Amino acid sequence: MIRISNTEFGQFQRFIFEAAGITLSDAKKALVSGRLAKRLHACRVANYGDYFRLLMSGESPMELQTAVDLLTTNETYFFREPKHFEFLKKGLTSGAEQPSPFRVWSAAGSSGEEAYSIAMLLEDCRPGLPWEVVASDISARVLERARAGHYSMERIAHFPPGYLQRFCLKGRDAQEGTLLVERRLRNRVRFLQVNLNAPLPHLGTFDVIFLRNVLIYFSLETKRKVVARVLGALKPGGYLFIGHSESLIEVSETVGLVAPAIYRKPA
pLDDT, tens digit, for every residue of 108-142? Predict the structure, then answer.
């Protein structure tokens, strides 16, 4: 097994911070080594230093994207942090029906479970009314998985009653133990590659933005910049959801806390 030196680890710390704004603590050394180990063999390089030099050479932009994908991917599951979905459902069922599409952005959408959870809820709570879900991530690899909508059944523990039968197909034979989000719902979720640490593409404005479990990887200054960008896409009166282990203290005063990890932009 090839070991990663402190100097080499430092190179990858700087690399992913510059590429995605993500701060990797020294405790992530084993994670970096583990996720990149197979790439050394695939690229036929002798050590992590040689692999880093390959990435910086500009000779293999596809490999550069692969490294970013491997270092930014996080596992998630359907209806994670259920209180957030309960809050959203209450607002959807008790609020006035708006004729314009209700728009939600899953800004750190990873492999798509969050975006599809939102889509199921909107389809359930706004029958016959227009809605849109946009999901984004920096990783091209996880976005490909998200568009496929094919997942392990291990991720369904928090599914609301009846949603699995209504919105998913259960795998059989070789696909047993998996689910496929139905095509009609998959076609209504738009997946885009977006780097939150750079100027955002034109996405329009949203009624709700989910920015969950990603701020913990950013430095304070990067958090401030990312949140400011994201809030620029939130409609007045709209809601921002962040992870329960995260906070906007010293990050932003633009929005006010209305429930645990839920903020509202003044109307």
Answer: 999 999 999 999 999 999 888 999 999 999 988 89
Structural contact between residues 62 and 42, judged by C-beta atoms closer than 8 angstroms:
no
Render pLDDT for 166-179 as a digit per residue (tens, 0 to 9).
999 998 888 889 99
Cα–Cα distance for residue pair 118/241, rounded to 1 Å: 12
Q: Is 207 noted as a catalytic residue in this protein? A: no
**Which two structure tokens, joined as six digits, stand for 2?**
């090839």
Over residues 206-251, the pLDDT tens digits come to: 999 999 989 988 999 999 999 999 999 999 999 999 998 899 999 9
- Active-site residue flag, 147: no
Closest CA to 19 of 57, 60, 56: 56
**Per DSSP, which regions of 107-223 are E strands?**
131-137, 150-152, 168-170, 178-181, 189-193, 206-211
Question: 69, 80, 103, 137: which is the annotated catalytic residue?
Answer: 137
CB-based contact 222:23 (threshold 8 Å): yes
Beta bridge partners of 150: 180
User: Nearest Cα to 241, choosing from 123, 126, 106, 77?
Assistant: 106
Active-site entry in 35, 39, 188, 190: 35
Mean pLDDT of 84-113: 88
What is the 8-class DSSP label of residue 172?
-
Q: What pLDDT is attached to residue 148?
A: 96
Q: In terms of C-beta distances under 8 Å and separation of at least 24 residues, what long-range contacts does 153-160 make, across chains too?
A: 153/177, 153/178, 153/179, 154/77, 155/77, 155/78, 155/113, 156/77, 156/78, 157/77, 158/77, 158/78, 158/79, 158/80, 158/82, 159/78, 159/79, 160/79, 160/85, 160/120, 160/124
